[in-house]
Amino acid sequence: MTDIGSSRPAAQAFELVLDKGESRVAEFEVRARSPLQKLQHFLHANPTAVPAIVLLLSVAAFGFTVGPRFLSMFNLSLIIQQVTIIGVIGAAQTLIVITAGIDLSVGAIMVLCSVIMGKLAVTIGLPAPIALVVGVAAGAGCGVLNGTLVTRLKLPPFIVTLGTWSIFFALNLWYSASETIRSQEVAKIAPLLQALGTPVNVLGARFTYGSFFMLGLVASIWFALNRTAFGRHLYAVGDDPDAARLSGIRTDRILFSVYVIAGVICALGAWTLIGRIGSISPQAGQTANLDSITAVVVGGASLFGGRGSIIGTLIGALIVGVFRNGLALSDVDVLWQEFAVGWLIIIAVALDQWIRKVSA
Predict the structure, then answer these.
(1) Distance CA 305, CA 197 (A)
(2) With 291 labelled, which of 60, 310, 311, 338 sits at a CA distance of 20 to 30 A?
């Protein structure tokens, strides 16, 4: 059927209606962003920006108020030495937090592994390398227990690790008989256990092998998180486990492996702890749990999972170290140092909440 005097086919009634209707199918409304919104988007896209800025401002503030004592190469390298244990244990905590979990047992695992290493090498007389291997295996075993309870019994990580913290701490006191192995005994019988505490002078700064070990560990985890499928799966599980499962990711296997890896890192932290303090004490590392969580949160990781970086954790540990060192040089009481660190945690979480609103 055609119109009279035209070769064009006659249009149906519904087609005429369509011709006069809205031709746009769908489009997004583009709204102008205020400078504050642009800053919010920038911080959301760059999780390490906030801790990096805070670290620079902290160093500048203490450098201005305390003076050359704070900015000397010796003091700045001393801060790196002081945060070595926090950096190592914070690396383990970062992996757990990215999966939307939290591990309250990292400090207890570290101390238990240090006691096992010391008892085997110093008291029983096993070669130090074997004691180290057994200690690392014990850390992995602790991680297996945590991972099994989280993935098989579907218990909340907070409850699981709160319980295992108490279990590991009790085992630590039982196996050590609440006795400290003196530094002189360790140095005489098993000096390998103190190897990471060996000082190294570089251009007037003084580091330890433990400091380089921490940097190597951070670099390895950065590669795993950013250049491997395991890292991408880790973020996916933490961001939305149901979506990750539907996309084919074996979420339970990822979670289990993360807790085992965290246990191994805690055991390596035990080696670092022995190098740092020289002796082996069942009472050492009591603040490791809180310090590791502080470093992770201040470093920009979200306790809700799916967001965080190992570089941010390292910067977070340095921020805590700078605050404590700067306040100590300013003759501020330890009580008020903890007061300041507490506010750091609260401000970091509040800032994370504000930044996350950009994706809402």
Answers:
(1) 34
(2) 60
pLDDT of 178 reads: 85
Distance CA 251, CA 242 (A): 9
The 8-class DSSP code of residue 48 comes to T
DSSP 324-336: HHHHHHTT--HHH
Rounded CA-CA distance 205/199 in Å is 10
Rounded distance between C-alpha atoms, residue 61 and residue 302, angstroms: 27
- Separation between Cα atoms, residue 52 and residue 3, nearest integer Å: 73
User: pLDDT per residue over 14-71, tens digit each?
Assistant: 566 556 666 665 555 556 667 777 777 777 777 778 888 888 888 998 888 888 888 8
- Euclidean distance between CA atoms 158 and 241, whole angstroms: 17
Fill in the amino acid letter for 267. A
Q: Give, for 315, the enclosing helix (H) or strand (E).
A: helix 310-329
CA distances to 77, 130, 176, 253 from 292, in Å: 20, 28, 24, 24
Helix (H, G, I), strand (E, B) or coil at 2: strand
Token pair 């005489």 in the structure block, residue:
188
The 10s digit of each residue's pLDDT in 308-327 is 889 989 998 998 889 888 88
CB 109 within 8 A of CB 168: yes
Burial of 163 (0-12, 13-18, 19+ CB in 10 A): middle
What's the pTM?
0.84
Are 251 and 244 a contacting pair, CB within 8 Å? yes
| pLDDT value at residue 38 | 77
Q: What is the three-class DSSP state of 4? A: coil
Percent of the chain with pLDDT over 70: 89
Q: How far apart are CA 306 and CA 282, in angstroms?
A: 34
**C-beta of residue 295 within 8 angstroms of C-beta of residue 316:** yes
Helix 209-227 with 84-98: angle, nearest 10 deg: 20
